[in-house]
Every structure is written in structure tokens, then in C-alpha cells.
Amino acid sequence: MAYLDVRDVAAAASYVTPAVEPVGFTRREWQVIVLAQRDGLSSLRAPGRLAKLMGWLFGEGINPRLADPRLEALRRLAVLAWQDSYAVPVSAIKAIKAFGFTGDQVELLLASIANGRSSKSGNARRVAALA
């Protein structure tokens, strides 16, 4: 018959309670999530010929894409979530997980944005307050 020696409390605690890492985002990642509220779905596509021509004629427009591919993947998922709430494509979730984000972080992102969308004022202050 096997038994657990509980005389050593530290050893017993390591068996009983698994190590849990906190879930969240850095301050910069929260800023990307909040700023993605202003971006439309068109910011996810590459500019077409007409947009390039207009940019050439009238000067370059604002490019919402981020230079850091990890933050850009986060921005893309946040834009989709701000526009469609929980109806984000699985490919966007796989893309963000490929950059090291966890499933818990994806759930936190979607829940925070849904909470921000349901607020009466419709702004991102409630999402920023979670940071």
C-alpha cells in the first residue's frame, strides 16, 4: 500500500497544488488590444491597386500594421474580436498561438473585448482597466 508522507509540508504542497502561472498581457499588448478597436476589417487586407494609387497621388495613408509580427498577430485577432466578438476564425486563433500566446490569453482577450463592447459608452476604458 502506498502512502504520502505529509511530515514534509513543502514536498506535500508540491504534490497537492500544481504551479499556476498568471494569465495576462503586458502593458504594450493591452495598448495594441485597445488601439485595435479603431481599426476596421479593411486593415487586415493588403492594400489594393486603387489604394496604392491614391496613396501615391495624395501621399501615404496611415498604415495600422505593426512591425513586430507577434504584436501584429495580436492586433489582427483583436480587430476581429472588436468587429465580430466571439465569432473569430480558428485560423486567427492558431496564428496567435503560433507566436506563443496561450489559450487562456485568447479567452481573456475575447472576454475583455466582449465586456468592452457591452459597456454603455462603447469605449475601451474597461478593457484598459483590466491591465
What does this structure look like?
The chain is mostly helical and 131 residues long. It has one domain. 56% of the residues lie in helices and 0% in strands. The protein is built from seven helices and no strands. It has helices at residues 9-16, 27-35, 49-58, 69-84, 90-98, 103-118, 125-129. Helix 4 (69-84) runs antiparallel to helix 5 (90-98). It is elongated. The N and C termini lie far apart (49 Å). The mean pLDDT is 78.
Average pLDDT over all residues: 78
Report the sheet-strand fraction: under 5%
Shape: elongated
Number of strands: 0
Low-pLDDT runs? none
Largest sheet: none
Distance between the termini: 49 Å
For the record, the count of structural domains works out to: 1
Helix content: 55-70%
Our Rg estimate from Cα atoms comes to 21 Å
**Number of DSSP helical runs:** 7
The sequence of SSEs as H and E is HHHHHHH
The helix-and-strand class reads mainly alpha
SSE layout:
Elements: H1 9-16, H2 27-35, H3 49-58, H4 69-84, H5 90-98, H6 103-118, H7 125-129
Helix pairs in contact: 2-4, 4-5
